[in-house]
Amino acid sequence: MTLKDRLVEDMKVAMKAKEEGKVRLSVIRMVRAGIRNAEIDNKLEFNDAQVIEVLARELKQRRDELEEFIKADRPETVQALEKEISVLMDYLPQQLSEGEIRQLVQETIAILGAQGPKDLGKVMGTLSPKTKGRADGKLVNLIVREILGA
Length: 150
Description:
Blueprint: H1 3-16, H2 22-42, H3 48-71, H4 75-89, H5 98-112, H6 120-131, H7 137-148
């Protein structure tokens, strides 16, 4: 079963769940619309990897909004966003822990022979495909900067 098929099946389940499935249903509909729009823009049928990219983009957007609403002291909106994030996380691959990210960063730096801040772009370019959909890009960037001394 593809990820798109799973989204359709889960949407049906959420519709039948009525009130309990409202948040899940709205998030799934939003994701499916995002996937459909991206497919139309790119004029192709998305595979699971491309669907994961859309999911990761939606997750990043929610996390960015979450930070802003926390700063603005809006607890009801923060709670709603946290629910949306948890629904999105159900469809993404297992997220890497900070320790796993550090290990990947150190391996990549060793392979590339990166020396300092000037090699940040090279390291991030190599790491991005390995962590896409499995780790928050901001966290990866932070760890790379920390290790490179940037």
